[in-house]
Write a structure and sequence with these properties.
By secondary structure, the protein is of the alpha/beta class. It has 16 helices and 13 strands. Strands 3-2-1-4-5-6-7 form a seven-stranded parallel sheet, with helices on both faces. A six-stranded parallel sheet has the order 10-9-8-11-12-13, sandwiched between helices.
Length: about 350
Amino acid sequence: MKKIVSIVGARPEFIQASPLSRKLREKFTEVLVHTGQHYDPNMSDVFFKELGLPKPDYNLGVGSGPHGEQTGRMLTEIEKVLLKEIPDVVVIFGDTNSALAGALAAAKLHIKVAHVEAGLRSFNRLMPEELNRVLIDHLSDFLFCPTETAIQNLRKEGITKGVFNTGDVMYDSILQLYGKAEKESKILQTLNLTPKTYLYATVHRAENTDDLNRLRSIIDSFAESGETILFPIHPRTRKAAIDYKLEVNRIPNIHLIEPIGYLDNIILMGSAKKILTDSGGVQKQAFFLKVPCITLRDETEWVETVAAGWNIIVGADKRKIIDAIKRFSPVLKQTKTFGNGNAAGKITDLLEKYV
């Protein structure tokens, strides 16, 4: 049986790997490697448990650090695993440092690279994730794209071989697990929330957390919105708010909670009136859950959600954020832009055919 090494390290990768791992193990021997990029139990352990991901065969324990140092340490440790396991293919997900390190390690050892969520572009080279995406795609042998736009992005860069539109594995996860979340999650009762009475917010990108003016503008817009804002605060954002003395915890209508597991997360998102976020994954999940999304960035790689009328880009402009909170309301019916919920099956079949 052919062997695949799948590399994960951060929450979006755990979500993407969940449906794919189940399918891969029907046809391949899968070795799961966790780099340790997200190491907090609230951002790692609980996701593995709820998503039904098998225990990692390797946990590299790299943790956080500057981009160069973190990626370098991952590269060193992943190379050791690949030399020991000698897989036929390395599967990586998205645009994290874990994914870049995995692609580099595999490519240098002449092991085929399969990139799940290939072809995304925000066209903002100031984003570390954008640099990672471009490099990974040019290293990959199999490029599994979630949308037709992603295929067109690759074609413009001269990448046409090994490119497939499979749909989005995150959509697989939502379809497979939302029913379970409805049965098991008690988060609405725990937080004493009624559906459609609050907005759900996530802020974690460096462009917002590392810029006092942007973060202050975002927090001020929340405070002045007149809405109840549920805000699971990322460790980076919490530290920035403390460093900048923004005292978010003292703002009456902002309800801070710790990062939560996947099942609670999708219930809170699905029950929100609107979602405010700078996360790519949350933009997509909002779309899948049919909740209007307000994106706190100056651009997005998920342009399909904007074209469909379910996502609006407002950056960190307080006036635009408040206006979107009050007025943004999708009018278009959604289409199957991200596939039919069987991306994991398509990816597995393609790997079985071509490996």
